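Figure 3 (text version): structure tokens given as input.
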């Protein structure tokens, strides 16, 4: 079939800042490739407003910041009795949004492809119903994808649950051994409904025509090879994977608007002397933990920028918006005065991309959200890995044991990471031989990221391949 001259690519996003940021970057890339793009975002049903409260406003902020990208708000689905489990509630919302998505797709004159966030697996049904080719945009590491695609096979050929296996190493194709306790909580218990739902999703990913991954080949060569060789899904073909990253907000775009005070502060610090601490868009640590971090930073003697958020009142609802933190109450007495000359506290939000790219930044204490990892790798900043929720423990294994771009904050899986550990790891990365070795490796990661995105780099070529595949795709709306 002839390629449509004006095809639209519909990106179906899930709410959540860490999902929206890379989706918007993909939209920009597609626009540069000459395609019309619409980001179709769900509207949470009123009954679930709690869970989505912070990310719904993020969509508005992103739409305002990116006027060249078109956002379409799908109407809210009916959801009379939301699941009590917040994660299942989110997945249900995405599933119930399939009919409005289908109606939207049918309203468009020509759609070249439907690109789905990794939580929008049920939307494959809308693609099937319209004959529009579906792709996933995987905004986590290729290593996560390799492990998750393997899980349906793993579960059908083994017994027992990860939750009962302690740190026993799991051996999956394409990734280093993963301690069972580092698997995401959603798959820890085989008897759990969430686990069944996620396995169903992983089992459907191969239905897509291809998977775009926000990574670059050098960073995850082993996982990418395993995916390409079909080693992760033994019983059916794995769709082609396109490593098109790292797609992160460009520094010059991040720098639009007023310059954040922490950047002027960084200007005055020596090269590579500052430790940056930021735990993603939700960053939820307890008050006791904040105090331990403060003590560790103080005794390390190093400079720091620390993004401090109020602890969640209810840790199970860490995603709810929180008030500005009261630093004096939260941090140890006198800490702010004693560290005034070498520390900068930022409330709630820092310009992370710019901070990481600043010459004065020497290390990054991160929760291992994948955007954060890519931003650090592209900036050449070693990571101190402190995973907290979602797939971050698995990312930590990949970053430390696979990519060798960071060290682990021990105690991340216990009640508290102690001040002594914070001090020890900060010193290790900033002062010791191990830190120097990490920096050499990070310099390589940074160069390879730039090379992947250059004109003939692996990510540019993969994106060109994807565009070529789109032209082959059948763009008629109602083939079935
Ligand atoms: N971010 C930021 N400033 C902050 C906190 C987060 O700019 O104070 C950005 C960060 O640069 C990244 C995103 O928010 O692009 C967080 O995504 P990630 O995947 O790292 O973690 P998540 O928020 O999804 O857990």
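Below: residues designed for each position.
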């Amino acid at each position: 079939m002839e390629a449509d001259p004006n095809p639209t690519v519909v990106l179906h996003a899930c709410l959540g800042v860490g999902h929206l940021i890379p989706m918007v970057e993909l939209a920009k890339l597609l626009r540069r490739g000459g395609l019309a793009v619409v980001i179709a975002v769900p509207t949470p049903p009123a009954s679930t407003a709690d869970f989505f409260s912070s990310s719904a406003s993020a969509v508005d902020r992103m739409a305002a910041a990116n006027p060249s990208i078109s956002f379409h708000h799908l109407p809210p689905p009916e959801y009379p009795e939301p699941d009590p489990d917040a994660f299942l509630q989110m997945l249900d919302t995405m599933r119930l949004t399939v009919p409005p998505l289908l109606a939207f797709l049918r309203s468009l004159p020509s759609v070249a492809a439907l690109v789905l966030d990794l939580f929008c697996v049920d939307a494959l049904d809308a693609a099937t119903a319209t004959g529009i080719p579906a792709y996933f945009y995987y905004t986590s590491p290729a290593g996560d994808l390799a492990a998750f695609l393997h899980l349906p096979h793993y579960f059908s050929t083994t017994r027992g649950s990860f939750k009962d296996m302690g740190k026993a190493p799991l051996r999956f194709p394409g990734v280093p051994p993963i301690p069972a306790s580092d698997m995401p909580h959603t798959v820890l218990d085989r008897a759990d409904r969430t686990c069944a739902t996620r396995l169903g999703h992983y089992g459907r990913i191969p239905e897509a025509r291809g998977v775009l991954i926000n990574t670059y080949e050098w960073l995850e060569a082993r996982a990418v090879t395993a995916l390409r060789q079909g080693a992760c899904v033994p019983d059916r073909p794995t769709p082609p994977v396109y490593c098109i990253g790292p797609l992160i907000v460009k520094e010059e775009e991040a720098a639009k608007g007023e310059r954040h005070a922490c950047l002027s502060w960084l200007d005055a610090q020596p090269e590579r002397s500052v430790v940056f601490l930021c735990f993603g868009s939700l960053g939820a640590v307890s008050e006791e933990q904040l105090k331990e971090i403060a003590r560790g930073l103080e005794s390390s003697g190093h400079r720091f920028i620390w993004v401090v958020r109020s602890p969640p009142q209810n840790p199970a609802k860490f995603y709810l918006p929180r008030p500005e933190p009261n630093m004096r109450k939260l941090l140890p007495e006198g800490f702010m005065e004693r560290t005034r000359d070498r520390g900068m506290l930022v409330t709630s939000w820092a310009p992370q991309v710019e901070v990481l790219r600043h010459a004065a930044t020497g290390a990054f204490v991160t929760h291992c959200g994948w955007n954060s990892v890519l931003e650090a790798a592209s900036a050449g900043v070693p990571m101190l890995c402190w995973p907290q929720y979602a797939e971050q423990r698995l990312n930590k294994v990949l970053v430390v044991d696979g990519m060798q771009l960071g060290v682990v904050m021990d105690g991340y899986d216990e009640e508290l990471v102690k001040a002594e550990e914070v001090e020890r790891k900060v010193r290790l990365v900033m002062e010791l031989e191990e830190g120097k070795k990490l920096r050499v490796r990070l310099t390589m990661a940074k160069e390879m990221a730039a090379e992947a995105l250059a004109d003939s780099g692996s990510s540019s070529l993969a994106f060109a391949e994807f565009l070529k595949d789109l032209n082959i795709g059948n763009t008629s709306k109602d083939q079935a």
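The CA atoms of residues 229 and 238 lie 8 Å apart.
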